[in-house]
Amino acid sequence: MELRLSVCVLLVLCVTGSVNGGRILVWYTEASHWINMKPMLETLVDRGHQVTVLVPSASMFMNSSEPSRFQYEPFNVSLSLESMEKFVEEFLQFFMYEMEHMNYIQVYFRFIEIMKKNFQTTLTLLEGVVKSDTIMKKLKEGNYDLLFSDPIYPGSELIADILGIPLVFSLRFSIVNNWERLCGQIPAPPSFVPASVSKLTDKMDFSERVFNFLFYALQDIIFDQFIWKEVDKYYSEVKGTPTSACELVGKTNIWLMRTYWDFDFPRPFLPNFKFVGGIHCRPAKPLPKDMEEFVQTSGDDGIVIFSLGSMVKNVSSDKANTIASALAQIPQKVLWRYSGKKPDTLGPNTKLYDWIPQNDLLGHPKARAFITHGGANGVYEAIYHGVPMVGIPMFAEQPDNMMHIKAKGAAAIVDFKSITTEDLRNAIKTVINDKSFKENAMRLSRIHHDRPMSPLDEAVFWIEFTMRNKGAKHLRVQAHELTWYQYHSLDVLTFILTIVLLLTFIFIKTCSFCFQRCCGRKKTKTKAE
Amino acid sequence: MELRLSVCVLLVLCVTGSVNGGRILVWYTEASHWINMKPMLETLVDRGHQVTVLVPSASMFMNSSEPSRFQYEPFNVSLSLESMEKFVEEFLQFFMYEMEHMNYIQVYFRFIEIMKKNFQTTLTLLEGVVKSDTIMKKLKEGNYDLLFSDPIYPGSELIADILGIPLVFSLRFSIVNNWERLCGQIPAPPSFVPASVSKLTDKMDFSERVFNFLFYALQDIIFDQFIWKEVDKYYSEVKGTPTSACELVGKTNIWLMRTYWDFDFPRPFLPNFKFVGGIHCRPAKPLPKDMEEFVQTSGDDGIVIFSLGSMVKNVSSDKANTIASALAQIPQKVLWRYSGKKPDTLGPNTKLYDWIPQNDLLGHPKARAFITHGGANGVYEAIYHGVPMVGIPMFAEQPDNMMHIKAKGAAAIVDFKSITTEDLRNAIKTVINDKSFKENAMRLSRIHHDRPMSPLDEAVFWIEFTMRNKGAKHLRVQAHELTWYQYHSLDVLTFILTIVLLLTFIFIKTCSFCFQRCCGRKKTKTKAE
């Protein structure tokens, strides 16, 4: 069969009566998370809702003084923008350069140190909201219908609880999925659901399953000790009553997960988890004139797009030269988003840009490959347009993301720490010349597009649903009301086992008693005889 | 906020190029299952697909000689229509009348006997397909793109495997969900997912959780011994190689579950399970003239609609009189689908009909309550139109269905075996006069309508998706490749436990050795001294 039906799902909004839009409060976020959230917020404004975004004074990516269709609620934090930028720089330095010179023990302790610092930073940001009477008064008087949050910065669950309004999360992942699993109650059997940041796929051999199991367990213990307890203490202090942060997170009405089965491995989930990966992707727009001219000079060889994301704008001079040298050896033209010093080895086929229209380039007919750090936004744009990838992942979920695409046959991975010109050149050549990479990228693209509803429409539907119904109670599983041992039926098993043992004991005792009586009699009889 | 946005999602089909529809083979089914399947098949025909339905010669509800938009593939079975009807009569008699005079042991053995007979009947029907060279040749030459099946009669998974085509299931449930759980790998923690036909809800106390746990376990053992082993044997014989029926069922590409969170309790599920309950519901059409006139005579009191479903057309004279007497005591006008002898106690407010346009009556503004046997089709029509229910469940999942609606506050239940005039009258009066029942029915109706896509559109989308993509591999969890102990990480746990025990043993032994050496030396020293 050749089914050439192309189904376009057109969302037609029939607005009846007067449009009294909802009032949506948006939690502060940063970097690619903010980039991802914007299209949803734009659509919500288009649909008549009032969107108010909380912006800390030390925000690097959110600018409350910029003209915008959103309302901003700026708040002061006892952190300067410089200190935030310094922390990010320190964070990047560790993952990009320091780690390679450290042993495992050193990496572990430095990582814990950075995590603690990160946690302190997030609490300082939160203080700007909860400890400010003015802001809290404004939020209470705002009569918001919903709090919408990318929970990279915690606190939104606390504020939603204080304001008594529904909460919708938008997230790619939490470390080892501990928010989704432990608070959201999403099932995650370690036998086929790899923990996030574990770099595993859903196909695990025995040793990988052991690793995954221990990874879940150990991270849960570490998080419980270092993070959850601290957050509980803070929330309890703010609320004035003993408060469990995880319980508040568990009250989230809808979890908009920024993945889908084009990118993620199929797994069990719950009715209030919606998979809306690729929310920000859209068809390519025409390129700026000079860029289009450069692209056209590539001929049949086409172009390679190269970006390390919104946070990493340049790399060390050594790495830059290694990379530039590899790029110089491929026949494609390369567009590299790079703000550092021009590398000496830069070939004539490579052009550096402070900024590139990444989505438009990936959607260009001449796009042959995408060299990426593996951030979810970029990876999704490449999936949307069916472009094979070379991943140079660095931190957070980037190695995981690239491992997903590699497992699906649409990417090669190069290690940033030990990168060589040869490795990178070979990887680019492989994903371009080995047809299977393009075929697999196109397969993922087909899966991405061939779904009942676009991810943006789906996300907006569930946000509006939550406002219309003041929550989404009918999607909340009863598991939230169970303890962990009740959830796993351990109390039931113990009870049944006790009964079985008791019955066995009684049976044995009865048999033994009967046997004794019987033998006893026989013996007495024999004696008597 | 008063959000008066009413969102209509309009599915506009843009057909590009020539429409080369798919070829869909439909597995034979019966009674309400066939009624439910028809709207999907009609829509598939509307969308340019060719639909061929397998019809056994002993079918009660499917008529291959009737003019229809489907193609029929009739096949002979060594069973007469009369014997099928006699078996159904025997089945109904047991559940409706015999059971009340039996003790638990008698019920159990009679039930097993009926189940075995039912199983033999299904195998006899299947023989009509697999043992007929003509039919098998026709099916092979039919070049079908998909097998679509309500698996109430097993065998479709075998034929899909033999023909090498994708399989889509449409089902309300299997007993204790053993197909979905054991073969489809859907997670079902017994702590909050009640086994189907258990009459439990998702809120269980300790004793109910013990019951649910044992119910799952015991039914699984019984099914394994009485059903699965037999089916495996039969399938292996047909295929000529050892074949696991459950493995074949597990290859189902899409499971279209005929429930949704308006009716079912929220639970974990998998990406290839789609919840499309209410697929056959539609807005009410005008009633036949004389029926409308009768309905209008009800005034403000409105009407009560009463049907015991497509299989039960009449009841014993005793029960009929008890029921008619209760109906005579309510102020509403009653429309009762009943083909038996007119009961003596029938009041002037009640009219008997051989057939009623149930959906149109439930959608009538004068509908006040629906007296139902609790079949999923009728229950869904009542949810669609927001009508409170009085359930008189009898067999299969009917008691379960009514328990769901009762738990959601939109129904009262009356026991058919011990029904009294007073019970029924009070139940009807309660659901009509206690406003909470109507409010809850309307809440369920709102949940039913307020979803991103209509259930029919969603079902059709996934059927076409499976054809377009020759399956739905990207939605299949890796759990299918694991054994039960691997799935639950029992091998991993055993390994970790062994290591821990071994390390503890080595540690103790080392300590003990050191202690002995230490004390030994001291002793020797003391001795020497």
Automatic annotation (TrEMBL), chains A, B:
What keywords tag this UniProt record? Glycosyltransferase, Membrane, Signal, Transferase, Transmembrane, Transmembrane helix
Transmembrane stretches, start-end: 492-515
Q: Does the keyword Electron transport apply?
A: no
Q: Where is the signal peptide?
A: 1-21
Listed GO cellular component terms?
A: membrane
Q: Which InterPro entries match?
A: UDP-glycosyltransferase, UDP_glucos_trans, UDP_glycos_trans_CS
Report how it sits in the membrane.
Answer: Single-pass membrane protein
User: Where is this gene product found?
Assistant: Membrane
Instruction: Report the GO molecular function annotations.
Output: glucuronosyltransferase activity
Q: For this protein, what is the EC number?
A: 2.4.1.17
What superkingdom heads the lineage? Answer: Eukaryota
Query: Where does it primarily localize?
Result: membrane
Pfam entry (one)? UDPGT
- Hey, which family's this protein in? Belongs to the UDP-glycosyltransferase family.
Q: What is this protein called?
A: UDP-glucuronosyltransferase
